[in-house]
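Appendix B. Extra example for self-study. Work through it before the problem class; the solution is given directly after the inputs so you can check yourself.
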Amino acid sequence: MTERLVLHEYAASGNCYKVRLTAALLGLELERREYDIMKGETRTPEFLAKVNANGRIPVLQVGDRSIPESNAACHFLADESALIPQDAFAHADMLRWMFWEQYNHEPNIATLRFWMGWVGVDKLSEAQRLQLPFKRQAGEDALKLMDEHLAERDWFVGDAVSLADVCLFAYTHVAGDAAFDLPTYPHLSAWLERLQALPRFIPLGA
Amino acid sequence: MTERLVLHEYAASGNCYKVRLTAALLGLELERREYDIMKGETRTPEFLAKVNANGRIPVLQVGDRSIPESNAACHFLADESALIPQDAFAHADMLRWMFWEQYNHEPNIATLRFWMGWVGVDKLSEAQRLQLPFKRQAGEDALKLMDEHLAERDWFVGDAVSLADVCLFAYTHVAGDAAFDLPTYPHLSAWLERLQALPRFIPLGA
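Solution. Structure tokens for the complete assembly:
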């Protein structure tokens, strides 16, 4: 990477951590710029005009261009690295888990973590409160699917760590913040340990 | 493609149509196998064991292997074609729109279409009914973001059609089924026409 890389982020977000973790595993340097989402700092006119019209973090700035969406930012950083399989089927299979993460995992596990740890359950709207049991069940279903997939394999795709693992790790390893009981998923727990043992691994709080 | 391609699908689903449209634009042959999601045919023990443990369509079968997740299946089919830009930034930017589609567009526009056209608004649960105004607003926000992005460009990424356009087209062009007023988005409407004019384009009902 010859262009300057700046991560526009809220550090406690698992989606932002994905991008930092990908960079760390690849030995890439990132500048970091923090926005307080609880104070609406990603919805200001300036942020919407200059960083992301969608009003969300993370955004990876590459020189004077930007990539919103955490999993897309990870894909840019990992281009031509061992974190993206070269075979077309394996590449698509990796993306399959990354799309699944954004559709079936993040809206349940990350949203519950945010509602419980940031918003506060007593501050939820009626519409949100009624979704709690559905998100709880969908989150358990997601963890169960991952656990079963990992029963006979070390990594999500093929026999090596890929972005699928990195992107799924981000919110899975903090699912306890949303009162999911990770030790009840033994294969998932072993995979979390394998990922944390990778060279150059960094924790969420780093 | 030398391996047999079978699309496990529910034909009226925009997610399944994406895969058919990608194949058509590339001149690839797909066998099609229909499942009635309204009768639970994707949640049978056999489907969960043999097609997709996540209980969803589409699934693209490639020989004896399978790829769930519509956007990942499109990526497999389009590998090394002009529908995927070769430049690393443009590739990630394309994926950015495809992740955005699954997170910000599909759960609002496709879900409202399904609730209004298949489930029936009078059959919604209280939890679903309370989400209607939020999904309506988020759907309008998604269409507005697309319209603004297209104000000064013909395609979502670079200057040529890519999977970002194909995947976003699928549920956008039927947003009227969910009572979104597409003609109020002029740039988006022009883009829909551009996409429908592509050689080998096929409609949803084909």
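Self-check: Chain B has a mean pLDDT of 97. If your reasoning did not lead you there, revisit section 3.
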